[in-house]
Amino acid sequence: MKITAISNLELCGGKEALKEKISRLCEAGISEIILREKNLNESEYCALFCEVLQICNHFGVRLFLHNFLDLAFDLEHKFIWLPLGVLQNFRQNSTRNLSEFEKIVVSAHSTGEAKIALNLGANALCLSHIFPTNCKENLEPKGLDLIRNVREFWGGEIYALGGINSSNFRLALGMGADNIAIMSEAMTCENEIKFLEKFL
Questions:
Q1: Residues 132-161: pLDDT tens digits?
Q2: pTM
Q3: Residue 149: CATH number of its domain
Q4: What is d(CA 141, CA 40) in angstroms, rounded to the nearest whole number?
Q5: Residue 161 and residue 131: Cα distance in Å, rounded?
Q6: 154: exposed, middle or buried (C-beta count within 10 Å: 0-12, 13-18, 19+)?
Q7: Burial level of 20, CB count in 10 A (0-12/13-18/19+)?
C-alpha cells in the first residue's frame, strides 16, 4: 500500500510552509505527493512544482503533477494526476501522445467515469469520495461500493480518496483499493512520523 499525500496551500498557510510540510512528510517516509493547487495559474504552479520536485527528488519520493497536462509534457515529467475533464479535453484537442507518461492517475466518481477514464488512457484510478469529508460536506459520499463495483471490471491500480483515516482505511483496502490518498490530515498533522505510523 502507498500512502499518497495531497497538497493544500491554504491548509498549510502558504508556499514556504507547504514546502516545509512536504519536506517533513518525505523525511517521515510518505510514499507519494500530489501537488494539487487548483488556485494557482499555470506559471505559478510551475514555479512551485519545480521547487517541490527538488525536495521530493532529494528524498526519493514520487511527485505527481496535477491538472496542467501541457506543463507535464513541457517538463517531461512522467507522473500525472488528472481530473477526468482535463483528460477528455486533451483527447478531443491534442495530438500529443500520452505514452510519454509512466503513470496516469485519473479521478473518477462513478463506475461510468472510471470506464471513460480507462478508455481515454488512464492506467490508474483515484476513486472518491469514499467516506464523509469536511472538504465535501454537502455531497453524499460514494461509499465502499464504488471501489467494489470498479474492481469488478478493473484489475489495475486503485487509489481511495475522501475521508480516509486510520480507523477506516483497511475497509477501503479490503474492498479492493491498492492505495490511499489523504489531504487534510497530511497537511495539518503536527507529527508526520506519528501520522504515517497510524497506517501501518
A1: 876 656 667 788 999 999 999 999 999 999
A2: 0.96
A3: 3.20.20.70
A4: 27
A5: 8
A6: buried
A7: middle
- Domain ranges, residue 69: 3-197
The pLDDT of residue 132: 87
DSSP summary character for residue 162: S
Q: Which single residue is written with the C-alpha cell 501522445?
A: 97
Burial of 25 per CB tally in 10 Å (0-12, 13-18, 19+): buried
- If one counts every other C-beta atom within 10 angstroms of the C-beta of residue 196, the result is 20
The total of structural domains in the chain comes to 1
Q: What is the pLDDT of residue 141?
A: 74
Burial (CB < 10 A; 0-12, 13-18, 19+), residue 11, is middle
Phi-psi label, residue 114: left if phi above 0, alpha if psi -120 to 50, beta otherwise: alpha
pLDDT of residue 117: 98
Closest CA to 33 of 8, 9, 3, 4: 4
Element (H, E) at 64: strand 62-66
